[in-house]
Automatic annotation (TrEMBL):
Residues 1-710 form the Alanyl-transfer RNA synthetases family profile domain. Its cofactor is Zn(2+). InterPro entries: aa-tRNA-synth_II/BPL/LPL, Ala-tRNA-lgiase_IIc, Ala-tRNA-ligase_IIc_anticod-bd, Ala-tRNA-synth_IIc_core, Ala-tRNA-synth_IIc_N, Ala-tRNA_ligase, Ala_tRNA_ligase_euk/bac, DHHA1_dom. The lineage of its organism: Bacteria, Pseudomonadati, Bacteroidota, Cytophagia, Cytophagales. It catalyses: tRNA(Ala) + L-alanine + ATP = L-alanyl-tRNA(Ala) + AMP + diphosphate. The keyword Oxidoreductase does not apply. This is Alanine--tRNA ligase. Consists of three domains; the N-terminal catalytic domain, the editing domain and the C-terminal C-Ala domain. The editing domain removes incorrectly charged amino acids, while the C-Ala domain, along with tRNA(Ala), serves as a bridge to cooperatively bring together the editing and aminoacylation centers thus stimulating deacylation of misacylated tRNAs. It comes from Algoriphagus sediminis. Its main location: cytoplasm. Zn(2+) binds at H563, H567, C667, H671. CDD domains: AlaRS_core.
Length: 875
């Protein structure tokens, strides 16, 4: 059975059992402080489990894109080294939200695996939670009894908390689980050692394929467990592992999910897969990582230097490094696999097909720049090797290995490999120590202690009423304190709220909450999954009172201007630059709007002007807002609404339209009732922020007005300075031309003067027989002129000793020049002379035997310089 059919069969099976199919949520998580990437199918249903949100369907089935490279679930180091952990993988799941529980979940899982997929019952093992004293939990007898009805008891294994109690993170929904494992070893081996001895023993051929989690608890921050409002089922089956089991392969990579990639890589590298273990690891790392990288970029996360972006960058670098070290790639190669990603996954995940060119461009730039870094790192390593060998040492110190890791992205194994090749060893302990120091430093910086929510009222979900109201009466449902290094944060959830929570680029509202007893300030509003969390300056004294929630309306209105202007800008960009324009990020607040979009070249001045003209003409048309709430997503798409990749949309969406022929977008933000409110639109800058992504910053309404007023004021001021000429530009041009003329004139005057001076000086030369001595006081415009004239005189006068005491625009300076012939014949040195004479002007200097200069402080000393020189050289 082909992989595609296997996936389809799973969904069909559960649809027949009344499950509703929901698409995968994006791999990059927004609005969740505890999670960067989706690491399990359940993430998108977290609020339904916690009771923050009514589940839309009691039964759901899906295939979720997951990434396990950070946080509680981090498999990165295993990937490629083994054959069944991936960075990005698909998790097939069926779900019950307060509907069926263990009995059905267990029976259906077994039916699907053995009867539909036809897996051999004798190869399957199941596990059951054995209980845990520290959590005061007893064995999962219920699950055990259901299993006993379908599998012989010797195939049921009791598992510890580590394996059989599933938790999403440090806190959150959790519960006991039953895993299904498969033994894929050949018969002879199975006869020798029974499979149940190898379950959960990291055996390559005895692996877990499916985990049935029975969600019952919420883990609180103090470590205690609280019962969830209802009991749920959350199952997760690794799709790649299932495919391998059904296709009867000894590695996930031998299935049709990966084989096209391995083949392409064999062709590109000229190396064979399956010959050498180290090369094989490199093959697996690369074909695994290209999926993770492509899918996350498709969901809007670009490689960068922090947070999620940095995780992606590290995955990409790991792939490049393996390709470079073991497959001999010295130029970019990963980006060429993007076509295959599109071909193989584009049907189920259209985002990788539609953005193929963009993804491959981003990867190309990123790997090119990392290859350059690698090169520099290797050069640095050469230096280090040379230093070590000059000192006769043979160990690369830990700090050096860490520098290579930190600055050049060299992981320890690469440095140690190169060290071995050069017969050096490496101080791994020292490296670990440096690593620990860095970790402690960054941990300390970000440490936060989340307090648990204190509930005041039943949690029935939060209603946002801020599209229609800026003020409302409301109640606090719950509150908590978050302790951080920089002081405490106070957070409040209201039953209904006019405060807009930061999302879709639009900043969160600020304002106040007021009761008869309290008045507190709302400093920011953010989403946490589907909760709307108000960040306040303190928890009210009497939190159970009724509060008046008041949004700071002017700030919100200015923000609305900018948000609507962003929509108009996006459509104008499409008109001017083309349909490839995709939003890559945005920021909308009361000051500016920032819009990032995919485009490969700098916009010309004309293009920018055209865009401004279109937006401003749409503002003048005063187009009315058409806001549709709760539109079925398919219907919205039919209307031509622009959706964003990597954004999580529900089945019902909000559609914001300003002229159905111009701007139709899926958007949860707040907008002006008609475009005329925006008043005016002005682009301030356009530039590149990373490969293929450009950023426009613009302003609207009063800000834009002020901008033009400031410009006008500046022009006026310049006009006044120039005594109000009729034509300002001509006047300035005239000034510049005049200035250039004057400059030329001054230069020629200086030259004339210098020529006159020279003639005068030549007449003062004293012939002493063995040498010609010139001692004089002069006035010159600059030090250069003094040097020039000293040299010219030296060239023109034979056997010369020239001493000039100069007044350079009020500053004393001395130049001494001596002919080579004089130097050769006498014990004379310009440097010494100048140092000696400089005393008269309270200065110092020096130079070479044939030419030296000195500056000083005392201008009145110049006559004395002349006198002394004459005493020494003319007497
Ligand atoms: P393992 O012990 O093998 O790492 P797990 O206990 O971490 O698995 P779960 O968190 O229960 O796995 O996830 C559910 C299913 O997802 C697993 O049964 C497995 O089939 C699959 N799975 C988990 N991690 C990975 C991974 N890194 N790559 C591919 N599939 C995975
Ligand atoms: Mg795991």
């Amino acid at each position: 059975m082909e992989a595609k059919k296997i996936r389809r069969t799973f969904i069909d099976f559960f649809e027949k059992k009344k499950h509703h199919y929901v698409p995968s949520s994006p791999i990059v998580v927004k609005n969740d402080p505890t999670l960067m990437f989706t690491n399990a199918g359940m993430n998108q249903f977290k609020d339904a489990f916690l009771g923050n949100e009514e589940p839309k369907f009691p039964r759901v089935a899906n295939s979720q894109k997951c990434l396990r490279v950070s946080g509680k679930h981090n498999d990165l180091e295993e990937v490629g080294v083994d054959t069944y952990h991936h960075t990005m993988f698909e998790m097939l799941g069926n779900w019950s939200f307060g509907d069926y529980f263990k009995k059905e979940a267990i029976a259906w899982a077994w039916e699907l695996l053995t009867e539909v997929y036809g897996l051999d019952k004798d190869r399957l093992y199941v596990s059951v939670f054995e209980g845990d004293e520290s959590d005061n939990l007893s064995m999962d007898k219920e699950a055990f009894d259901f299993w006993k009805e379908i599998v012989p008891e010797e195939r049921i294994i009791m598992g510890s908390k580590k394996d059989n109690f599933w938790e999403m993170g440090e806190t959150g929904p959790c519960g006991p689980c039953s895993e299904i494992h498969i033994d894929l070893r050949p018969d002879e081996e199975r006869e020798q050692v029974p499979g149940n001895e190898l379950v959960n023993m990291d055996h390559e051929q005895v692996i877990e394929i499916w985990n049935l989690v029975f969600m019952q608890f919420n883990r609180l921050s103090d470590g205690s467990l609280k019962n969830l409002p209802a009991r749920h089922v959350d199952t997760g089956m690794g799709f790649e592992r299932l495919v391998r089991a059904i296709q009867n392969k000894s590695s996930n990579y031998d299935t049709d999910l990966f084989s096209p990639f391995l083949k392409a890589l064999e062709e590109k590298s000229g190396k064979k897969y399956g010959v050498d273990e180290q090369t094989d690891i490199a093959f697996r790392v690369i074909v695994d990582h290209i999926r993770a990288i492509s899918f996350t970029i498709a969901d809007g996360q670009l490689p960068s230097n922090n947070k999620a972006g940095y995780v992606i960058r590290r995955i990409l670098r790991r792939a490049v490094r393996y390709g470079y070290t073991f497959l001999g790639f010295t130029s970019p190669f990963l980006y060429e696999l993007c076509d295959l990603i599109s071909e193989n996954f584009g049907d189920i995940f259209p985002e990788v097909r539609l953005q193929k060119d963009f993804i491959s461009k981003v990867i190309f730039e990123e790997e090119s720049s990392f290859l350059r870094t690698l090169d520099n790192g290797l050069k640095r390593l050469d230096q280090i090797k040379a230093e070590l060998s000059s000192k006769g040492e043979k160990v690369i110190p830990g700090e050096v290995a860490f520098e290579l890791y930190d600055t050049f992205g060299f992981p320890l194994d690469l440095t140690s490999l190169i060290a071995r090749e050069s017969r050096l060893s490496l101080d791994e302990k020292g490296f670990e120590k440096e690593m620990e120091i860095q970790k402690t430093r960054s941990r300390a910086a970000s440490e936060q202690e989340m307090g648990d929510w204190v509930s005041l009222r039943p949690d029935t979900g939060v209603e946002f009423i801020g599209y229609d109201f800026l003020e409302a009466k409301c109640h606090i449902i719950k509150y908590r304190t978050v302790k951080g290094k920089k002081g405490n944060q106070f957070q409040i959830v209201l039953d209904k709220t006019p405060f807009y929570a930061e999302s879709g680029g639009q900043v969160g509202d600020t304002g106040i909450l007021k009761s008869d007893y309290d008045q507190i300030r709302v400093l920011d509003t953010k989403k946490e999954n589907d909760l709307i969390v108000h960040f306040v300056d303190k928890i009210p004294e009497k939190p159970e009172e009724t509060f008046e929630a008041i949004v700071e309306s002017n700030r919100r209105k200015l923000t609305m201007n900018n948000h609507t202007a962003t929509h108009l800008l996006q459509s104008a960009l499409r008109e001017v630059l083309g349909d490839h324009i995709q939003q890559r990020g945005s920021l909308v607040n009361d000051q500016v709007l920032r819009f990032d979009f995919s485009h490969f070249s700098k916009m010309t001045d004309e293009e920018i002007q055209q865009v401004e003209e279109i937006v401003n003409s749409k503002i003048r048309e005063n187009i009315e807002l058409v806001e549709q709430r709760n539109v079925p997503i398919e219907e919205a798409k039919k209307q031509g609404a622009t959706a964003l990749f990597g954004e999580k949309y529900g089945d019902f969406v909000r559609v914001i339209t300003f002229d159905p022929k111009f701007s139709v977008e899926l958007c949860g933000g707040t907008h002006v009732p008609s475009t005329g409110r925006i008043g005016l639109f002005k682009i301030l800058s356009e530039g590149s922020i990373s490969s293929g992504v450009r950023r426009i910053e613009a302003i609207t309404s009063e800000k834009a007005e002020n901008y033009f007023r400031d410009k006008e004021k500046l022009v006026k001021e310049i006009q006044e300075v120039l005594k109000n000429p009729k034509d300002l530009k001509k006047a300035v041009e005239g000034l510049i031309a005049e200035r250039n003329e004057l400059k030329k004139e001054i230069e020629s005057l200086h030259q004339e003067k210098a020529a006159g001076l020279k003639t005068e000086l030549l007449s003062k030369v004293k012939d002493l027989g063995n040498k010609n001595v010139l001692i004089a006081k002069v006035a010159l415009p600059g030090a250069d002129a003094l040097k020039k004239i000293a040299f010219e005189l030296k060239n023109e006068i034979e056997n010369s000793l020239i001493i000039l005491a100069a007044d350079i625009a009020g500053k004393p300076q001395i130049s001494v020049a001596v002919s080579d012939s004089v130097l050769a014949a006498e014990d004379i040195n310009a440097g010494q002379i100048v140092r000696d004479l400089a005393k008269e002007i309270q200065g110092g200097g020096g130079g070479q035997p044939f030419f030296a200069t000195a500056g000083g402080k005392n201008i009145n000393g110049l006559d004395q310089v002349v006198r002394r020189a004459e005493e020494i050289f003319l007497k």
